[in-house]
């Protein structure tokens, strides 16, 4: 019996030593150095102990297995923690915060992080993985297996499991616990970087598991919502011709001339600056920096502030699971056609599903654009302008068009330029100059802006020629990632990590323009993305919902311009009662029973909602000779850049094509050709297909 106790104690001591090493390596990866990892363990003994307890209980459960299986499962269980550390380190450098639980749902965007891996880092990761696998195989082969498990070993493993389940259930769901109080674990919701720095990677991640759930406000009820709505004035508008409304959310659009210590050889945004003086404009407070585009988009379409949602959550992925009242269906109820345009994959951020629930009539994604114009890895803004004007010039109904661009998407290279490069910058701070990498990054970014500015000028010019009343809202979704760890911002002295409110506002505000061809208004707009829908609806005279009406009331009273980060809300002088009302209205709209929506049938999706305008249609096919080669020419309508030709069930790579014609090599001679054109996405999913057209040879 004594031997069994001794063996069990030794085995659990080995588990404890292994857990110590796992935490050391995880923190080493995240913090960037062994020294910093060691200093954290030494200086923050209590938070380290918290991490140790969680992992020790988890890994001790594996002692239920015999030795060889224990080793294998221990290595397997270690992998997720290493991945968490690596991903958090990368996200920290890119976005300034570690990985949070909601990021696990962000599969499509997370794959884009590969762009930020250097080839050397990828090589080391592959080499390291291969070495670990080889070591595991060697250990499993060389280490003698346990002849049999003793009852004490199994009992201790079961006890560890029970303790782990209990501890996890309490620690993941409760903000204040016995362990957290005594081991100095605390969460800064608005600063996850500091949370992880003080508490550790594993504890920091565990504390944020509550981000995956939403609690019902204590005072939420039908009566409470009705009381809020009774004290809210509903605006009334004359029954006039409704203008076209074009909202453009420009990827990473920002004004680099705000870097006051930087000299530009020319203005990268001359037309935009001109319009801001002539028309209405200002700055738009946005909820994200450097990424998570969909959160700014969500606020601008719904009026719901993400500041009152769990930090790190992405509503498009987490919460828009049913039809909700938003700008698209508000406009549709008022006789508009609502069209979304985006020069990227339909599945990204689940937009094809979300847009249907928001009330769009159609979504013209990259797969349905006839001739997208490439610009390195993304699509030039010319394509967006083409698609907007294509819709404006078609039909007589008023249009609400929401367009999301991609041309300016990062990363911006630290070396090399685009063909249209023309911007040069220099640092004016005495005795300082940009590093070559920072200089190139800023110049490439600014070069992009010159092209975006030209397309904005082209769009406004063409809209003026339509003689249709039109409003254009143009803004950026977030500031750009100008190098890792705020490289350009730091070197330019724009960002110094002070943690002050004014610096936060600078890093979370993008330029805003509101242009129209009929009102003559010239307003200074300093508002938040969630307030934008209310201001827009009021400008064009369209009645919104209870949330937009409430926000409009408070905006017009002068007490609400934006909803900033929770720890900075006091700086905006927003009364606590207003914050409480907004939280209740948002909950009712997004998670509750929609007491504020009198007729819920009006927010149901359009039953004819679809991707693109129509399915491709083949009207004719003929055979031509070209330099001795036989070419099959397929004529029709609604062909796109992602249209693929199938002849007798076999894919045929196209030679060329546009919206009305596709040319492919003539397949081997057969008596009959059955031709189909399919629109497919990057995952090879068929989105739509044409009629079958038969050619008898």
Describe this structure in words.
- The protein has 697 residues and is α/β, with parallel strands linked by helices.
- The chain has 3 domains: 2-212, no CATH class; 241-610, Alkaline Phosphatase, subunit A, CATH 3.40.720.10; 614-696, Sandwich (Immunoglobulin-like).
- The protein has 23 helices and 22 strands.
- The strands form 5 sheets. A 9-stranded mixed β-sheet has the order 12-3-11-10-1-8-4-5-13, sandwiched between helices. Strands 16, 17, 20, 21 and 22 form a 5-stranded antiparallel β-sheet that branches. Strands 14-15-19-18 form a 4-stranded antiparallel β-sheet, with no helix packed on it.
Keywords for this entry:
single chain, 697 residues, alpha/beta, Alkaline Phosphatase, subunit A, Immunoglobulin-like, 9-stranded mixed sheet, 5-stranded antiparallel sheet, globular
Short account of what is shown:
The protein is α/β, with parallel strands linked by helices and about 700 residues long. It is built from 23 helices and 22 strands.
Shape descriptor reads globular
* Neighbour order of strands in the largest sheet: 12-3-11-10-1-8-4-5-13
* CATH level 4 superfamily of the largest domain: Alkaline Phosphatase, subunit A
> Which CATH first-tier class of the largest domain would you pick?
Alpha Beta
Helix count, DSSP H or I runs of 4 or more residues:
23
Question: The CATH topology of the largest domain, please?
Answer: Alkaline Phosphatase, subunit A
What is the residue-averaged pLDDT?
88
Mind telling me which CATH architecture of the largest domain this is? 3-Layer(aba) Sandwich
Largest sheet: 9 strands, mixed
The proportion of residues in beta strands is: 15-25%
Structural class from helices and strands? alpha/beta
Unreliable runs, pLDDT <50, ≥5 residues? none
Task: Specify the helix fraction band.
Answer: 40-55%
Number of strands: 22
């Amino acid at each position: 019996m004594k031997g069994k106790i001794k063996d069990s104690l030794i085995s659990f001591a080995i588990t404890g030593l292994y857990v110590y090493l796992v935490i050391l390596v995880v923190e080493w990866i995240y913090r960037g150095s062994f020294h910093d990892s060691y200093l954290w363990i030494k200086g923050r003994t209590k938070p380290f102990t918290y991490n140790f307890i969680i992992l020790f209980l988890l890994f001790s459960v594996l002692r239920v297995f015999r030795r060889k299986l224990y080793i294998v499962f221990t290595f397997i269980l270690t992998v997720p923690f290493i991945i968490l550390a690596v991903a958090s380190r990368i996200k920290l450098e890119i976005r300034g915060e570690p990985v949070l639980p909601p990021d696990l749902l962000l599969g499509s965007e997370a794959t884009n992080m590969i762009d930020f891996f250097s080839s050397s880092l990828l090589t080391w990761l592959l080499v390291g993985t291969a070495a670990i696998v080889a070591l595991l195989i060697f250990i499993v082969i060389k280490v003698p297996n346990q002849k049999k498990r003793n009852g004490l070993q199994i009992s201790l493993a079961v006890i560890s499991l029970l303790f782990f389940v209990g501890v996890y259930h309490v620690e993941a769901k409760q903000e204040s616990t016995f362990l957290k109080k005594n081991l100095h674990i605390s969460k800064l919701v608005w600063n996850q970087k500091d949370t992880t720095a003080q508490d550790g990677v594993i504890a920091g991640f565990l504390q944020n598991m509550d981000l995956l759930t939403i609690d019902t406000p204590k005072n939420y009820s039908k009566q409470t919502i009705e009381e809020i709505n009774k004290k809210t004035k509903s605006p009334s508008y004359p029954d006039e011709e409704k203008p076209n409304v074009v909202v453009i959310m420009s990827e990473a659009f920002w004004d680099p001339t705000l870097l006051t210590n930087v000299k530009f050889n020319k203005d990268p945004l001359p037309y935009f600056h001109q319009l801001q003086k002539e028309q209405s404009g200002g700055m738009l407070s946005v909820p994200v920096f450097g990424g998570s585009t969909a959160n700014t988009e969500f606020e601008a379409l719904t009026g719901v502030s993400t500041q009152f949602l769990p930090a790190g959550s992405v509503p498009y992925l987490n919460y828009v699971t049913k039809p909700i009242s938003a700008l698209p269906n508000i406009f549709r109820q008022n006789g508009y056609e609502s069209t979304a345009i985006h020069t990227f994959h339909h599945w990204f951020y689940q937009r094809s599903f979300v847009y249907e629930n928001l009330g769009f009539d159609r979504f013209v994604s990259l797969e349905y654009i006839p001739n997208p114009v490439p610009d390195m890895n993304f699509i030039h803004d010319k394509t967006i302008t083409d698609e907007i004007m294509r819709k404006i010039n078609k039909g007589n109904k008023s249009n609400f068009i929401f367009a999301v661009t991609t041309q300016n998407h990062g990363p911006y290279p630290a070396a090399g330029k685009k063909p249209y490069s023309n911007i040069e910058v220099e640092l004016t701070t005495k005795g300082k100059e940009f590093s070559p990498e920072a200089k190139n990054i800023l110049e490439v970014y600014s070069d992009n802006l010159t092209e975006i500015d030209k397309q904005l000028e082209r769009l406004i010019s063409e809209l003026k020629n339509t003689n249709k009343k039109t409003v254009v809202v143009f803004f950026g979704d977030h500031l750009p990632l100008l190098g890792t760890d705020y490289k350009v911002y730091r070197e330019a002295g724009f960002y110094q990590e002070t943690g002050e409110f004014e610096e936060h506002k600078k890093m979370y505000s993008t330029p805003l323009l509101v242009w129209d061809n009929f009102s003559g208004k010239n307003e200074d707009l300093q508002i938040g993305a969630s307030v934008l829908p209310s201001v827009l609806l009021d400008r064009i005279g369209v009645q919104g919902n209870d949330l937009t009406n409430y926000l409009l009331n408070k905006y017009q009273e002068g007490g609400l311009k934006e909803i900033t980060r929770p720890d900075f809300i006091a700086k905006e002088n927003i009364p606590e009662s207003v914050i409480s009302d907004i939280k209740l209205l948002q909950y009712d709209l997004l998670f509750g029973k929609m007491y504020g929506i009198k007729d819920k049938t009006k927010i149901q999706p359009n039953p004819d909602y679809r991707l693109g305008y129509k399915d491709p249609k083949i009207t004719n096919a003929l055979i031509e000779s070209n330099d001795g080669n036989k070419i099959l020419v397929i004529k029709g309508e609604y062909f796109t850049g992602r249209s693929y030709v199938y002849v007798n069930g076999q894919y045929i790579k196209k030679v060329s094509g546009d919206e009305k014609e596709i040319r492919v090599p003539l397949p081997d001679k057969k008596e009959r050709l059955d031709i189909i054109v399919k629109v497919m996405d990057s995952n090879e999913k068929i989105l739509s297909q044409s009629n079958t057209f038969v050619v008898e040879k």
